[in-house]
Amino acid sequence: MNITKKLVVLMATVLFCITLYPATASAAVYTIVPNDSLYKLSVLFKAPIDTIKSDNKLTTDHIYPGQTLYISADAYTVKSGDTMYLIAKRYGITLYSLQKANNKWDNNLQPGQQLILPGIKPSTTSSKTVISYTPAEVDLLARLINAEAEGETYEAKVGVGAVVVNRVQSSDWPNTITSVIYQKIGEYYQFTPVKNGQINNAATDESIKAAWAALYGSDPSNDAMFYFDDSSTNQWMWSKPITARIDSMIFVK
């Protein structure tokens, strides 16, 4: 994460699917594969087509391979000794549905890996996002998360997304995802990836999931408005109240 040290404004480079950690709100991010349809997804995830369309701001029934959709579903963190069959049996779902929901047809599992549980409703979730968004803004937020928190854990990525959400919710900042991310004060961009062009790089699946997590209210940053790298020597940033320390990232108000 690049933090410029010339001015405080640049220092404030502000800026887990939801599914991925039990402490977060839950939202699965499913990637469309060939021959998928909204009807098939509705059956698989036991979710009404209208709900899927509404949650993803879809105006038609058209979907395409590679497209990612938010689906309300719980997730499971793989533990040592788990198999796809045992996980499916434990949650009362078919092995096929578990394989299909995760596009995973082998049994190579790693402890800590996350699997979507199709048809299992999230145990802790809000039914609505905490701020409004467009599909383009979900992608924009995910790309910012990817650029700012590459190499950090999922929790840190969610924290980055949460800072953007917190700014949108605050009367002190612009009120949309796009305007917050592209905000420029004087001649300085608020976010380094906007300045250096890394914002244009495609987001990973994990960053997309982190974006959804933040949109649905997960906030490991604890209401932070700024973040910076722990190697920073900027005293102004260090003087602000610290709300969270995640990996090498410091979150402050």
Describe the protein in words:
By secondary structure, the chain is α+β, with helices and mostly antiparallel strands. Helices cover 36% and strands 13% of the residues. It has helices spanning 8-11, 38-45, 49-55, 84-91, 95-102, 135-148, 154-169, 177-181, 192-196, 205-215, 235-239; strands at 28-31, 68-71, 74-77, 114-117, 184-185, 188-189, 226-229, 242-246, 249-252. It has a three-stranded antiparallel beta sheet. Strands 1-2 form a two-stranded antiparallel ribbon. Strands 3-4 form a two-stranded antiparallel ribbon. The protein is globular, with a radius of gyration of 19 Å. The model is unreliable at 2-26 (pLDDT under 50).
* CATH C-level class of the largest domain: Mainly Alpha
String of helices and strands:
HEHHEEHHEHHHEEHHEHEE
Q: How many helical elements?
A: 11
What is the CATH topology of the largest domain?
Arc Repressor Mutant, subunit A
CATH superfamily of the largest domain: Cell wall hydrolase SleB, domain 1
Rounded radius of gyration (Å): 19 Å
**Residue-averaged pLDDT, rounded?**
85
Task: Bin the helical content.
Answer: 25-40%
Number of strands: 9
Shape: globular
Compute the number of structural domains: 2
Low-confidence residue ranges: 2-26
- Please give the order of strands in the largest beta sheet: 7-9-8
What CATH architecture of the largest domain do you see? Orthogonal Bundle
